[in-house]
Amino acid sequence: MAQIVRLTTRQQRSEQEEAAQAAEQLSLLSEELLKHLPGEARIALSKITHALQKAARPDTTEGLWPGGFTMLSRMQTAAIWDAIRALPSDDRPHQVRHAFDLVLLNLRQDTGEVLLNRDQLAEEIGCAPKHVSTIMGTLEKMGVIRRERRKIEGMQGRGVAVYFINPHVAWNGSLDVRKAQAAETRPPMQLELLHGGAS
């Protein structure tokens, strides 16, 4: 059987080589120098390096890890599953678990933003869009996600709900960014209770 090979133009190869060289140069920055940079600068450098590495190797996420992968805290994920199972039936534990799984599968690189909107979540879960707010609200109360409102031009009201994963639970992208986000975010409540209030 013939093997399908993705063709790469000379310009694409040249751009990939330039991205690889730039990423390599950034990787030569010493830990001592990085230590003295403000947190925002370290995060920006990490994001740039990650983007350059991705541009240098555009096919890697389609190899051993199709679509990329999400890093999980095994302990915290297991605690969240247990907490969801313990929910009363009125809180729709099966749909909350489905929503949690969808969150883990649809994270934006380096921000932890959930890439599905309310209607898309409703379609995947198999419920009415009005129930998504309640389901995601349950995850929010547990400390698994946080919700922000994003204003849309020409749209009245507070804006659309945008969800972000708690970086103590899962992450997709640079570990430097994840550490910075986690330092500003509390772990899920259930885990604090499990460990006597320790974070």
TrEMBL record:
GO biological process terms held by the UniProt record: regulation of DNA-templated transcription
HTH crp-type domain residues: 104-152
Coiled coil: none
Pfam families in the cross-refs: HTH_Crp_2
InterPro entries tied to this protein: HTH_CRP, WH-like_DNA-bd_sf, WH_DNA-bd_sf
SUPFAM superfamilies: Winged helix' DNA-binding domain (SSF46785)
Gene Ontology molecular-function annotations: DNA binding
Name of the protein described by the UniProt record: Winged helix-turn-helix domain-containing protein
Source organism per UniProt: Gluconacetobacter aggeris
